[in-house]
Amino acid sequence: MEPLLSLRTFLAEVEALGELREVRGAHWNLELGAIAELSYRSPQPKALLFSEIEGYPSGRVLTGSTGSARRLGLTLRLGDKHTDESLVEALRGKPSAWAAAARDFPVLPVTDAPLLANQVAGEINLLEFPVPRWHEHDGGRFIGTGCLVVTSDPETGVHNGGCYRMEVQDEGRSVTIAAVPGKHGAQHIDAWFARHGRAPVTISFGHDPLLLALGGTEVPLGVSELEYAGAVAGERVPVVIAPDTGLPIPAGSELAIEGWLRPGRLLEEGPFGEWTGYYSGSRRPDLAMEITRLYHRDDPILLGAPPGRPPHDYSYMRTVMKSAMIHDELVATGVPGIRKAWAHEAGGGRLFVGVAIEQRYAGHARQVGHLAAQLPAAAYMNRYVVVVDDDIDPADLDQLIWAVSTRTDPAEDIEIQRRTRGSRLDPMLPEGATPYNSRAVIDACRPWERLRSFPRVAESDPAYLAEVRARWGEVLG
């Protein structure tokens, strides 16, 4: 029986939905990444399982795990019959409920798991597995794209699971971990360095993509992603306790390592094609892991989630999750009239957010725009927030741009927030600069004082259009 959060269980379910394709014989150097990229850009992208990878008699790579409403609904345990919009609606309210319930699902230590079939201590070579070189100008082979990096708070012992880029180093003997400064994992590492001079880490490279979804999302500080995953799944997550570090590894993992980070152990890493759609700067030093043990199943599957110019591997997932979270957080502020929020995939699910409201009072649109730009779910590297009336669907870029084009006076309706939370991944950030950014709040609502007199939209009544479609549907296709 497969453990909870087994990638193989997920794959069997995705295959039953008809949303999995097997790709045999691709090369790990660029070809695998290019095939995945072409798939992401197709109208209905499938999950791709790469096998018989050139030069590797065993070992597989999965891409596109969460790239459709049905697969992401399955991942989040919300059902596999959703459309984009129904999935966001089904997700609303869930993140806060899962976070509140997480402590009721402590991890479940186990001593037996398929992961333990093969164990290596000492001479470790990660290049025995088909780690892709995803993009043409990547600085190396990145094994950490869909990974889960587990750290802990040295005072409380609470675990964190983060998804960070990881380049294979030192001919397979090490990896660099590009933990984003300020994120919970980086805070844990810094705290361990300050207290003990080294930081313990475990990393899973293949697992149910639920852990990818949670590792790349703002789970509240002090809440373990593994316990949060238990709340989502409705049962405790079984884990193997790594003997050297004492940290958990999901029992459903395909391939995992444990070891230590030390302040002075740095290796050059990057560049890498990132979720913004650009390579992130030049080659630079990052923390390199001292790997003490490696564990893997027979014929293990790496969970690949390479970013790049959207749409990329997890841009759809981030769009859905951020849209629901931003909507929930806006409603939680107590501001009335919130109708819909959408974090657009073209902006990586972070950079470009639309919000529709029913205007209730003068200044309402600006209030919502400024709040949305700084919500916990949206603050990291947000660039634009556009607020529109509720006759506009903020998920429809054509409608959103039409509202900006016809309901704004640029001199009056665009406001700028400065020195806000940016990222070193920002392609607009000069090398070495402090990672601030600015963001624009665009009020694309009809002016409050002209709501009654603003020109009427030239379109048919929606109810009448529905009647016509029902009558002439054969002609309209």
UniProtKB/TrEMBL annotation:
Entry-linked InterPro entries: UbiD (IPR002830), UbiD-like_C (IPR049381), UbiD-like_N (IPR049383), UbiD_Rift_dom (IPR048304)
3-octaprenyl-4-hydroxybenzoate carboxy-lyase-like Rift-related domain location is 113-310
* Entry keyword set: Lyase
Which residue ranges does the record assign to the 3-octaprenyl-4-hydroxybenzoate carboxy-lyase-like N-terminal domain?
Answer: 12-91
GO MF assignments: lyase activity
**EC id:** 4.1.1.-
Please list the residue ranges annotated as the 3-octaprenyl-4-hydroxybenzoate carboxy-lyase-like C-terminal domain.
316-444
Cross-referenced NCBIfam families: UbiD family decarboxylase (TIGR00148)
Protein name, please?
UbiD family decarboxylase
User: Organism source for this protein?
Assistant: Paractinoplanes globisporus
